[in-house]
Amino acid sequence: MRLKRPAKYGLYMIILSLLILVFNLLFLLPKYDSASLDSYLEEKIAWKNEEDSVITDAYKIYGGNENELYLWYEFEEWNREKQEVVARGSSPMVVLLNEQREAVGHTTLRDGDEYVNNMKELVPFFVRMRMTTGDVPRSIEHAIEIQQADLPPEEEEELQLDEPSD
C-alpha cells in the first residue's frame, strides 16, 4: 500500500518527534543544588563596576553528569537610576560539582579560533547537539529582561518605602 505524500510527511514528522523525545529522555539532567549554583554564579563569575547597580542573570542547563553541569550563563549589570545595562558577560561553561551536588568550580570555553576545539574537548556530543552556536539563547535574554522590568528606579522604590501602608 502506497501512502500519499501528505500522509508520508506526517508519518516522518511523527517518527522524528518520537526520536527527539527519546533522545531527550536518555540524557536527563543530573540532580544539583540550585541555591548553591545560583550563589556560585553570582559571586564567582558575575561582577559589578558601579556600586549602585544590580546584577541580573540567568542560565540554561543543557546536560551534565554526577561531577559536571554544562550550561550557558549570562549576566548584566543593571543601573537602576538610568534604567540601562552598564556591562554584560555571557559564556557557555562547565560547572564542577562536589559530592553534595554543590557548585565548587567552573571552566569557561575559550573564545575565537580555539572555541570549537575547546567545546569538543570539554562538552560531550549529546550536550553540544542541544547548545546554540554562538548566540545567547533567547530564553536567557528574556529571563533577564523580566528581572530588569521588575526593578524600578531607585527613586521610585524609595518613594514606595516612604509611603505609609494601610
Could you name the key traits of this structure?
166 residues; alpha+beta; 6 helices; 27% strand
Written account of the structure:
- The chain contains 6 helices and 4 strands.
- A hairpin with a 3-residue loop joins strand 1 (53-64) and strand 2 (68-79).
- The chain has one domain.
- 40% of the residues lie in helices and 27% in strands.
- By secondary structure, the chain is α+β, with helices and mostly antiparallel strands.
- The chain has a 4-stranded antiparallel β-sheet.
- It has helices spanning 5-26, 34-45, 115-122, 125-128, 138-149, 154-162, and strands at residues 53-64, 68-79, 84-97, 103-108.
A few lines on this structure:
The chain crosses the membrane at residues 9-29. This protein is of the alpha+beta class and 166 residues long.
